[in-house]
Amino acid sequence: MPERPYVIDELISAKTIAARIEDLSREIAEEFAGTDKLIVVGLLRGSFVFIADLVRELDLPIEVDFMEASSYGDGMESTREVRILKDLRGAIEGRDVLVVEDIVDTGYTLKHVSGLLNARKPARMKTIALLNKQARREVDFNADWVGFEIPDEFVVGYGIDFAQRNRDLPYIGTVRFT
Ligand code: IMP
Fold first, then answer.
1. Which of 15, 25, 49, 116 shows the greatest Cβ crowding within 10 Å of its Cβ?
2. How far apart are CA 35 and CA 7, in angstroms?
3. Is domain 13-150 classified as CATH 3.40.50.2020?
4. Domain residues of the chain, as ranges?
5. Helices (H), 8-104
6. Which residues are within 8 A (CB) of 27 and not within 5 positions of it... i.e. 6 or more apart?
7. Alpha helix (H) ranges present in 32-157?
């Protein structure tokens, strides 16, 4: 990735994200009410900040596990070929599972991962994405919960990177080349 200077324009503030996570947590807790344990599966690496905030708001007994799937590499375009780089530690058969993704873009990643995990026969499985770029969808897949609908722009921050940079921003911003 050649170094091209860019600036980041704030799109969603840290406060707005926190408020939305409170609402989402309530809905998820209602959906999974009575569960003995919810396995919260974070898709690395972009979801690590979201999952950290989400589980601290969730009023449910939980366990956390992680998976890593390749999609963008270091560029700005999806490869459309999803490879599993890291699988779950634990089994999910007969368990309640929530898959946590940062962004649904073309949809290839979450569709592939959902299919894979569903084949392991969880009792109930739901998906949540912090951000959704509906305009970019190429496959028929929608997350059960979406934090925010966003336009077709490249975003960074709150765990989300551009070539591994800007994950540490507390807000979500769009990348604008200067
Ligand atoms: P999909 O398979 O095209 O839905 O891609 C989903 C993955 O692409 C996300 O988990 C992100 O890692 C990455 N991605 C999609 N859009 C963006 C973006 O705007 N900024 C950074 N990463 C993105």
1. 49
2. 44
3. yes
4. 13-150
5. 14-31, 48-57
6. 145
7. 48-57, 108-118
Q: Which atom of ligand 1 is nearest to the CA of 78?
A: 3
Question: 35 alpha carbon to ligand 1 midpoint, in Å?
Answer: 31
pLDDT digits (tens, 9 = 90+) for 64-117: 999 999 866 566 777 778 999 999 999 999 999 999 999 999 999 999 999 999
Only one residue has tokens 């596990």, namely 65
* CB neighbourhood size of 71 (10 A): 20
Q: Is the CB of 160 under 6 A from ligand 1?
A: yes
* 145-154 per-position pLDDT tens digit: 999 999 999 9
- H/E element, 84: strand 83-86
